[in-house]
Structures are given as structure tokens and as C-alpha cells.
Amino acid sequence: MAISRIILGVTGGIAAYKTPALVRRLKDRGVEVQVVLTRSAREFVTETTLQAVSGLPVRDNLWDKETEAAMGHIELARWADLVLIAPATAEIMSRLASGSAPDLLTTLCLATEARIAIAPAMNHVMWVKDAVQENRRRLEERGVHILGPDDGDQACGETGPGRMVSPDDIVASLLGPAAAHPVLSGKSILITAGPTYEAIDPVRYITNRSSGKMGYALAAACQEAGADVLLVSGPVSISPPVGVKVLPVQSAADMHAAVHAHLDGADIFVGAAAVSDYRVADISRDKIKKSGDDLSIALAQNADILASVAALSDGPFTVGFAAETTHLREHALAKLEKKKADMIVANLVGKDLGFDTDDNAVDVYWKGGEQSFSKRDKAMLARDLTTLIVERHLEHSHTAMTAELPATMVRD
Ligand code: CTP
Q: Could you state, in order of their start, the residue ranges of all structural domains in the chain?
């Protein structure tokens, strides 16, 4: 889901003077911005300026009858795709971490289901204090996106970490770098990621070592490139990229159903999930009790999601993954052929490779071509793969289109 409505919470730090520029940059990218000021923020920036640049009355009071009548705070919390707090003081971080809600901004943060991002700004000695770092960790663990702070000269005349990230960098991390024509703008992409859980009984399940990092990194890269991204994700412990919609699922059957329910209009499908090939044939209603030395569980084969999408006559461009322990090329080419995918991204898995790591090296195969990507950070790899996917997708659409045209109209 692209971000189109942001609540910008401004708290009381000197960096608040940069917020009119931040609002401008967001508006330039087509985002509606509702500014919410805290009482101390008013010491640093005026309501008049923020109202002028945002084009909306600034909100600052939970108890203002007039503004609440126009859009109540619960409605406002639902309206937003993202709550961004910039600058975020040590005080607001502490309130968010403890869940206290004495004013409009903190109440909105509790009442919203949207992602929260904060750009901390404070004196460098405050930033490294245990209490502040503990709050930062707690917020990060709860999925709050922390932007910066930057290192450098501070308003107090000292130098160190604590400067608010610049408005340009905040906008780039939330919305992706500004491009005149983002390559995937207007494209819709469905990505599966993570492992699946196949229940054995109410307390046990079969799963695998997938962390979901590669699929999530691809979702972020595609979103950065302007696509509308839906992640159908098995259980993972990482936060989704800002602006990406996530549909959580458990089993391979759930994932299959969720993919086919949301495939309509998708231009590209990426199967990055490590889908369990088998499910338990007969899930026990009650916990299986220990009895005897051996236990056998019958398994039944799951439907192949990637192959089912690739088989659709008017389906999307399909990209699959192949995680192998041996004979990478041979297995990858066999999967390309068997599943009728348009591209297979193959990597070796095993000790320190592939699953649950931050780096990855892959070889990509398609009909008539291949390309290797040496070991690099998964975020960087995801960007490089996205570039290749875009190239192959364009080539594929061009071939499909020219195949439908009379031969005289086809130039090359
Ligand atoms: N995949 C899928 N649905 C399944 C199994 C796999 O969509 N039921 C997709 C994965 O998301 C991945 C690709 O198929 O993109 C390859 O997955 P993998 O498990 O390596 O393939 P398998 O066909 O299961 O082959 P193997 O015998 O190596 O397990």
C-alpha cells in the first residue's frame, strides 16, 4: 500500500524548525499531511506556518470540541497510513515506550493501526543514555521505524549523534528515492515470504528456517521503485517495510488461498516464501500423547502456489526462488521448466548461507539467459533483483505484445 496520508507529530526540539520544509517535501510527493503539535513544539515552530504549508488546520488538543467535531481523534488515527514523529524528543520516546497517552499525539499513536516512524533529535549525551537507548530498543522491537539520528554538529554547539535526519532523507526512507518516473509506478506486485506452519496438533507444527528477510527486502525494493506491494507472509519476527500491506498467513493452504484471492490485477508475482511441500494429512484435534518408541505422521502434498500462478492464462510475470544444498544450476533450471515460472532466483543454503542471514549470493535463470549476483546485503540484493525483474518483465510484455501483432507491424 502506497503512503498517501501521514499524521506528522512535531514535538519540542530545535529541529522542529525544519518541519515546514518536511511538510513541503511530503506534499510534493503527493502525500496529504495532518500536522499535530505538542505543547512544547509551539516554542519552536508556529501553527500558522505549518497550516499554510500543509493546507490543513493544525491539531494540538485532544479536548478541542470544534476540531473533534470535524474529525475525532479516533477517526484521525484511522485516516492515516503512517504516523511520523519528527523531531522526536527523549520525552515522546519514553511516552511511546510506556504507552502513556496524556495528549493528542500520544493518544493517536495508541489508537492507530498504521505504522509509526520517528526521527529522534536530541543532545548527543541524552541520545546515548541507557534509558533512551532502552526506549529505542523497545520501540524498534514493537515495529516502530526509527530514522536516524544523524551524527554531526548540534544546535547546542557540541558534536555527536542526535541531529534529526534531513527532511529529504526522511522522505526518501519513507517513500523511496524521488524519481521522475519510478520504474514500477502503477504496477501491482504480490510477494510471498517467510516460512509456513503446518499444524500437527494444537501445540505442534512443521516449519523451516526461513526468516522472511529476502521477501521483505524485495517488498521494500519494489515499493521504493513505486509499486503497490502486497506481502502474503508466513510467521516471521521482522517488521514489514513502511507502506507495504501485509496479509499474515500460517499454512501453505492459507497462503495459496490468500494469493489467489488477491492476484487480480497483479503485474508481477514473486514467490519468495519457503512453502512447506507437505502438510499433516490428519491434524490431531487434541495434543498427541507420548506412546511407544516411534511415531509416524502421514503427510499429504500441498498445492504448488508458484506453479498454480504461472499456469494462469492471463496471469502475472512470475518469479520463483530455489534454495538448494547441491547442484544449484541443475535444480534451478529444472524448477524453471517444471513450474513454468518466468524467472528463478537460486541460492545455496546451508551453513551461514541463505536462510536467516543478512547477506545472500544468488544466480538468476530465465528462458535463454542467466545472471549471477555475488554475495551482498539482502537489501542491496533486493534492489538489484528488482532492476532485473523490471527488465525481464518489460522484455516479456514486449514479446507477448508483439506476438499478438501482425508480422508487418513488428520491427524488432
Ligand atoms: N513454492 C510454492 N508452493 C509450494 C512449494 C514451493 O509456491 N507448495 C515456490 C517457492 O515459493 C519457491 C519455489 O516454489 O519460489 C521453489 O520452492 P522449493 O521448495 O525450492 O521447490 P520445490 O518444488 O518444493 O522443490 P524441492 O523438491 O527442492 O523442495
A: 5-175, 188-402
